[in-house]
Amino acid sequence: MSDAANDSRDGVRTLPSPRAEHKCPELTLAEIDPGRYVERVPLSQGSTARIVRARDVRLARPVALKELLAGSQGLRLRFEREAMLTARLRHPSIVSILEAGRWPSGEPFYAMDLVAGRPLDQIIAEATTLEARLALLPHVLAVADALAYAHQERVIHRDLKPQNVLVGAFGETVVIDWGVAKELASADEPDEPDEPDEPDEPEPPRPALRTIAGAVLGTPAYMPPEQAAGRAVDERADVYAIGAILYHLLAGQAPYRSGESDAVLATVREGPPAPLGRFQPQAPVDLLAIVHRAMARDPAARYPSGRELAEDLRRFQSGQLVGAHRYSLGQLLRRQVRRHRRPIAVAAIAALVLIASGVVGVRRIVAEQQRASTQRRMAEQYRADAEDLMDFMLRDLRLKLEPLGKVDLLGLVASKAQGYYASRPIGAAADDVRRRAHAQENVAEVLRMQGHAPEALAAYRAALALEDDLATRAPADAQGLSNRAKIHRSIGWLVEQQMHSESALGEYGLALALAAAASALEPGNATWPQEMFAAYHHMGGVRAHRGDLPAALALHHTALAIAEQYAAADPASEPWQRRRAIGLFSVAKTLMVQGSLPRALSAFRDDLVLIDGLLASQPTDVELQRDRALAYRSIGSLLQNQGDRAGALVALRTYVASTERLAAQDPANAEWQHDLASAYNTMGRVLEQEGDVTGALAQYGAAVAIGERLQAQAPDNANHAGALLIGHRAIALLLGQQGNLPAALSRALAASALAERMVGRDPSNTDWRSTLALTYIDVGNLLGDLGYWPGALDRYAASMAILERLVARYPDNGDLLRGLADNQDAVASARLALHDAPGALAGYRAALALRERLVAAEPSDTSRRFDLAAAHGSVGDALLELHDAAGALAAFRTGLALLGPLVAQDPADVDQQHELATLRRRLARARLMARSRARGKSAARAAPPAR
User: Fold this and answer.
1) CA 772, CA 787: separation in Å to the nearest integer?
2) Which residues does 940 contact at the CB level (< 8 Å), separation at least 6?
3) Which terminus of the chain has fewer CB atoms gathered within 10 Å of its CB, N or C?
4) Active-site residue among 3, 7, 10, 159?
């Protein structure tokens, strides 16, 4: 290839200049006898042209005719240019032009090969699995090859989409509809702008397909941002479109959701589509990288033309390294394994034989006591080597893979190890027992991180039984005490996730006692306090879930004090600095739930500073990245509650982006997938407050999809159930606001059933009991909206019974008080709908008293102040029903006075704007009533006394 062909300018390869004769000449169309094409059958029709299937009697073969409908001179010129451009392109995957002409009536047409096939989007829709869609990749490669050829000819398509790719019965792939194709200028002459249509003969409307200078041309869902903005485009626009088709193939849906063209165009201009890894986390990373580069927002970051994209796709298909992806060492090693599978397989078999030899050797030793001592030593050595290898993979390698988010790679190793140890009896020696205990614990750790809770719990308990056996032999062994403490803590964490908080507290208590005993035996050893810290930390978490916030806060402060003591003694100790960060986060989270928002925000920010410092020296540590993301989520929520929407948005978007990156790194990590579901729920709430209902529903839907998948894997996991329930509740609320009451009720009932199941597993868990009460309120509200008030009141009564008991036990818990106030409001609204105005007024006033109590406890919480303003409005409604115009006026004015500063602080909050408008309407109604009553009294005074 010549140097000129490789010359790079702004990241775009300069192709050789086309020959002068490639420029389309003026076309003079001959008149054609319509009798040459018979058996005409319409196939499709647009606003400017139609496609007809016909038989060419001269050549006795089927053809497709494209005919221009009556239109302007500009349309006629464009149609003729399309025929010339398409006829010039001779490629197996570009439809061939057989003839061009005009009918006696003057309308131009051209004849093409009839491609007997179906559009690619239909075929993608029928492929319901990722594997099935990946099998369609050769069709996308054929499109890239066709466009590589077109780009070499200096022609761009400008309207590539799956509908314009036909797939024949024998796998042939053809790119059609070159109606908006454009011939680019040669390298030494400027591009000419599109010719506008003649103004006196306007073209019939075709969404997002206009040729007025600076306007948009193409199909919005597959066009690059520069095309959506109406700017000039080159080969890289087609590259983007091929990437969008590949996105559609992998995700099973278009990059941007269908809708009005202008709305889609605006979305394309605003930002990139949803990350492809969200829809298909199992997709090959090489292919995701190709899509990412092809669909880069900056044209200079894309492949220069279809040729480079086709080359990368071909490299992917042949198993070679693709240029768009930067490979990690692990990925390169795995590729080497795949490329050299046969020799590596031989080596693997040899390793397995080695392990099996050890197992068989041990069995023979037991069965054949007379074998020679040299053979016995060899067999023992084989066994020890095999177990050392498994121990290395399950412990040392796991600890190295864990910060990289790659523990899923050890799943098969854990499974094989379980089978191996199940087949081999345990020796009586203490070292043999300790080795087996460690092995079972390592297997359990891998299973836990992959979300296999029952299997992990069984492995932990097997390890604990072995450690307990050793403890009977050496009860004062500090290391043994610490080992048992760690296993008890791990068991406690698992049973806590399975909604057994009492059992979890017992396990954590045992862990704390054992760790304290180890520390007493060796006071100078900083290892044992690590387990004490962990036990206090987890016990605080259980107490918080049970609603005992003062006890939770005390336990978290104790854990933090331990971490700060040892971190101060050894400032360079990274593990103790991490524990400081964990302790700060837990303290801050408890303060937030307790309602101490300024203190909570300060603690979260201290935590973030500490995490950033750790990340500066360990930027690839995914656990630190996760902790940082969670800190941003909490900071965002607090800023939102304090009315700082701009700061909240920055923090929450950082949280969501970080969580998406983590989940994409290790799709098998159930904890990170749960974090991702929580992130989508959080962003859904943000979009909801901004009035973007469609975007909010999409975020909540993504959270529900992840939650359902996680629930299927671990039905009793409380965290997974929580993310799923939040998504169901949020969708129910939005659907109810949109008037889709049956669908909303179905979602609310699903959330309620899930909460009932979780409470059934652990009735002492305050979080789940209060959540169940809120789901009852949701169902009651929807039943009321459907006019079924008896059922609504039943749900409200069930909710009230739960919340009143919880508030009586934990009177300072802000979340419980708010839930009870919501319940009082719901009951009052039901009574108002049933024309029980006195009962409604009593309920609204009870809720108002609770709202005032909440605001007094934390005046900086804008959400509490908003609720208080709305509560005054509800009291005013009840007073209006009782014809107390003066009281209603006072209530509405108080509500407006409270709401005014909130709206001024955050004018973009949709909920506040809606409530402001509602209160103003109510105030106007109260004024009318007051005036009417005043006129009535005046008329009564002016009337003569009755005789």
Assistant:
1) 23
2) none
3) C
4) 159
Chain segment 724-748, per-residue pLDDT in tens: 999 999 999 999 988 999 999 999 9
Residue whose entry in the numeric block shows the structure tokens 């108080």: 894
- pLDDT tier, 280 (very low <50, low <70, confident <90, very high otherwise): confident
| Mean local confidence (pLDDT), 254-273 | 80
> Which CATH number describes the domain made up of 119-325?
1.10.510.10
Kind and range of the H or E element at 928? helix 910-942
Q: pTM of the entire structure?
A: 0.43
Q: Which residue has the tokens 């080159």?
A: 234
**SS3 of residue 446 by DSSP:** helix
CATH 1.25.40.10 residue ranges in the chain? Answer: 725-936
Alpha-carbon gap, residue 732 to 745, rounded angstroms = 7
Q: Is 101 helix (H, G, I), strand (E, B) or coil?
A: strand
Strand 97-102, strand 108-113: pairing: antiparallel
Residue 215 binned pLDDT confidence (cut-offs 50, 70, 90):
very low
Averaged pLDDT of the chain: 80
Instruction: Estimate the share of the chain in helix, then strand, then coil, as percent rounded to the nearest 5.
Output: 70, 5, 25
Return the pLDDT at 381: 52
Cite the residue boundaries of each domain of the chain with CATH code 1.10.510.10.
Answer: 119-325
Tokens of 398: 């796991």
> Residue-wise over 720-748: b if at least 16 C-beta within 10 A, else e?
bbbbbbbbbbbbbbbbbeeeebeebbebb
| Residue 756 in tokens | 């009932």
**Cβ neighbour number for residue 773 with a 10 Å cutoff:** 27
For domain 725-936, the question of CATH label 3.40.630.10 is answered with no
Sheet containing 117-119: which strands, arranged edge to edge? 117-119, 165-168, 173-175
pLDDT digits (tens, 9 = 90+) for 404-426: 444 444 444 555 555 555 555 56
Strand partners, 743: none
Which conformational region is residue 42 in: left (phi greater than 0), alpha (psi within -120 to 50 degrees), or beta? beta
d(CA 652, CA 634): 8
